[in-house]
Write a structure and sequence with these properties.
heterodimer, A: alpha+beta, Ubiquitin-like (UB roll), 5-stranded mixed β-sheet, 5 strands, 18% helix, 21% strand, B: alpha/beta, FAD/NAD(P)-binding domain, Enolase-like, domain 1, 5-stranded parallel β-sheet, 11 helices, 26 strands, 24% helix, 29% strand, globular, Adrenodoxin-like (chain A)
Chain lengths: 106, 406
């Protein structure tokens, strides 16, 4: 179990307990966080779960795969710490993780 | 709690969005979600992919876990069928005779496989593929070295062929049209998939119609084709499209025309009834005509509009259709709809590689892109299509120009 903080573009903040083994995307979908869509269900096909990982956490969340990188390169406003929420699996190590959500998912 | 009830018929992708969205939009009354299958709403796309292969189980396919429905106080009635709807008295009668009153009603009934009426179709070993039970039956017949025949060269047929072949079955796809995916894609893409499957050991027989099935001891053994060929088969999967589940709505007197007719707010011809997902025939504002889509993003986005309508708000459904298909290690992502194109532009090598994009233009504007292992082209195309911008075909084709600079 990890507590994840999702900060919407509006500044609205959600502190959510997410079970180990779930993805950041599923944690958001289960709690109806509007800034994450997860259209494809988590198979790395749509990039509608774009999150920006807080700088302090980048070493723990790791780096994106090739397919993920290509999708991230084409999101509206990619950043150095951009990831797809469906590709980050929650574990105890991520307890306290902070991610910011983009203005729009496309 | 207000003394109001919203009944959602169909435990589908659309329902999994509509029910919690209702709460978000401020619905304070009861919400009852009724589904025929014994499962909470689950992701259907993995059925022909990772669920068939055994990589995913039922639990991991659920769109939202049971706890979410509890949290939002959504009463879920599974394994239950709605028998009829009485709009005058605003009641729903279940197959067990129980009668439920509603204030608002939502159809999320989806679609079912188109059935064939051919001699021998009732033999064991012949299946359609739409739900968990179908795939569980199919899985019990997947034996390496055995023969599978897939009737229909659409996405379901091809994805299933890929998965069965990967599991060691000898697979033949039988398609009536001159090419696979004929209804939905350009000839170049059809040719690519034919090549891909051939390279992976699946044989595709086009311009071939099936006339019946023969068996031994009640189990299918052969698929009979119109040209006289008899294809040996231990397992047959029929994937020739779907039909929308409109019967309840039709019997209740709602306007139905290749789907339940709704407006851009997912509202049916009855002000207390909405519909969302594969079952709807709805206006598409980007393409300026009405259509029915078989697509997850359509179900999800339309359900949000439907939830708003039920709460007396207006949220226009105006999303760009998009689709995906995974076969072997090849990812196809489709942005938009290609119908009505007057120009096709290819980027990359579609004849020998497994990475290229096909762009469809109408009057100089991009209307659709089929992207084979090209996620960037897909992402940028989604935006260009939605914006309705004119594009330069030469730039689309020029690999020296990155998608962001189209």
């Amino acid at each position: 179990m990890a507590t994840i903080t999702y900060i919407e573009h509006s500044g609205e903040t959600h502190k959510i307990h997410v079970e180990n083994g779930k993805t950041l995307m599923q944690g958001a979908v289960d709690n109806l966080i509007e800034g994450i869509l997860g259209d494809c269900g988590g198979c790395c096909n749509c990039a509608t779960c774009h999150v920006m990982v807080d700088d302090a956490w980048v070493s723990k969340t790791g780096s994106p795969s090739e397919q993920e990188s290509e999708l991230l390169d084409a999101v509206p406003e990619p950043t150095e710490t951009s990831r797809l929420g469906c590709q980050i699996i929650v574990s105890d190590d991520l307890d306290g993780l902070i991610v910011r959500l983009p203005e729009e998912q496309f | 709690m207000e003394d109001k009830t919203c009944i959602i018929i169909g435990a589908s992708h659309a329902a999994a969005q509509l029910a919690p969205s209702l709460r978000q939009q401020g619905w304070q009354g009861k919400i009852i979600l009724i589904g025929e299958e014994p499962h909470l709403p689950y992701h259907r796309p993995p059925l022909s992919k990772t669920f068939l292969s055994g990589e995913q189980d039922v639990e991991s396919m659920l769109i939202r876990p049971a706890a979410v429905y509890e949290k939002f106080d959504i009463e879920v009635r599974l394994g239950m069928r709605v028998e009829s709807i009485d709009r005058a008295n605003k009641t729903v009668t279940l197959v067990n005779g129980e009668c439920l009153e509603y204030s608002k009603l939502a159809f999320c009934t989806g679609a079912r496989p188109r059935q064939v009426d051919l001699p021998g179709v009732d033999l064991k070993g012949i299946y359609y593929l739409r739900n968990i039970a179908d795939v569980e039956r199919i899985k019990s017949r997947v034996i390496a070295g055995n023969r599978a025949v897939i009737v229909g060269g659409g996405y379901i047929g091809l994805e299933t062929a890929a998965m069965l072949s990967s599991q060691g079955m000898k697979v033949t796809v039988v398609e009536m049209a001159p090419r696979v995916l004929a209804r939905v894609t350009a000839p170049e893409l059809s040719a690519f998939y034919r090549r891909l499957h051939r390279e992976e050991g699946v044989s595709i027989k086009t311009m071939a119609s099936v006339t019946g099935f023969q068996g031994r001891e009640g189990h299918v053994k052969q698929v009979l084709c119109a040209d006289g060929e008899e294809l040996p088969a231990d397992l047959v999967i029929i994937g020739i499209g779907v039909v929308p589940n409109v019967e309840l709505a039709e019997a209740a007197g709602l306007v139905v025309d290749n789907g339940i007719v709704v407006d851009q707010f997912a509202q049916t011809s009855d002000p207390d009834i909405v519909a969302a997902g594969d079952v709807t025939h709805h206006p598409n504002l980007i393409y300026s005509h009405s259509l029915r889509l078989e697509s997850v993003p359509n179900a999800t986005e339309q359900a949000k509009s439907a939830a708003a309508s039920l709460c007396g708000k207006t949220l226009v459904y105006n999303a760009l259709p998009w689709f995906w298909s995974d076969q072997y290690k090849v990812k196809l992502q489709i942005a938009g709809l290609s119908q009505g194109h007057d120009q096709v532009v290819i980027r990359g090598d579609h004849k020998t590689s497994r990475s290229f994009a096909v762009f469809y233009l109408r009057e100089g504007k991009l209307i659709c892109a089929d992207c084979i292992n090209r996620p960037q082209e897909f992402m940028i195309s989604k935006r260009l299509i939605a914006q309705g911008q004119s594009v330069d075909p030469q730039r689309l084709a020029d690999e020296a120009i990155v998608p962001r600079d189209f």
